[in-house]
């Protein structure tokens, strides 16, 4: 009888909790001129979130595309969280209104200084909350961050729990210690909430033990910091991502951070500018959409306080300025503009090859990360796989370019014709060794193909 009563009470509380949440959410969506007074969250003190600015936020230009996710911090003016600046639920709420229509998921850094309220505030808007425990060199502060994030996850305020951001890159803790934190979190957090750490791609590759300790590979790609010119940035990023997908061995991969600053220092051949920042934004999102890649873009807003720690470029990573205004040409992404729209095609360039020269071509209209090119040549009326049975497909660069070594066997220099098939990356082309006709499976699997004679 006692169990039945407790079950009934639980159902009553659950139903009423949902009703309260839905009422609050409806108030926000209808943009009523009211305040959320006496809204208590668990044992937290009641807060009053005035909805000033909601109507203004809703008047932003209509968007046809919503980002998968973005990184966001609520600091304003000369506030510096490193020096102890605090935020309030009201300030977080007001800053969130500037970007509330930009993405489905929002990532924050740290769970102190007022950021512990980020999860439930994001949930009020129907957004997913990716919350992070900031791990640094101080063990005591780390424990406070870790235990707080675990508590918030158990309270239902977290959709993905991130323990540390680039901690191995900074050397703030050891790989073994980070793995232990992740294992502890996995034990103490509900199994339906992914647990991970955010790291630079090369740090993940250097530490395979991380792969086994996380539910999701949450990885940072920054061509700018590696001095890569903007013309090559997405090709390099796509190559890094291929390495990480192989490393992940089937685990989910999410781009945790990437971006390009609109101002700052030139690093190598990487030049920060508004033009390059908007170009990278459009090229990255086009690539991610074409290849079904999840991401949290860095970042939504400029953060002036970071210039002190990262150089002048640290203040200029937002696709919006510090006041929430979209920077030049950033609107293209939200308008749904994509690069390389159109039907799938593959083009083979000149077949008048010099000795040892690769066959080259260009692909368009497909996701370059989840397609490959299968190449075959014909000699004396018979077809052969190229470059080899061990390597039956070649990778497509971000800009659509591909190349294949077609002189790997005796007589290859006498080839009469070449054919290239664009196939999904999970398709295994049949081995072709002297066949008169190519297998029908190739055309059934291919999204595009091209054949040329010499």
TrEMBL record:
It holds the Pfam family Glyco_hydro_17. It comes from Saltatorellus ferox. Transmembrane segments: none annotated. The keyword Cell wall biogenesis/degradation applies. GO terms for cellular component: plasma membrane. GO terms for molecular function: hydrolase activity, hydrolyzing O-glycosyl compounds. Glucanases play a role in cell expansion during growth, in cell-cell fusion during mating, and in spore release during sporulation. This enzyme may be involved in beta-glucan degradation. Active on laminarin and lichenan. GO terms for biological process: cell wall organization; polysaccharide catabolic process. It is found in: Cell membrane; Secreted, Cell wall. Keywords: Carbohydrate metabolism, Cell membrane, Cell wall, Cell wall biogenesis/degradation, Glycoprotein, Hydrolase, Membrane, Polysaccharide degradation, Secreted, Signal. PANTHER family: GLUCAN 1,3-BETA-GLUCOSIDASE, GLUCAN ENDO-1,3-BETA-GLUCOSIDASE BTGC. This is Endo-1,3-beta-glucanase btgC.
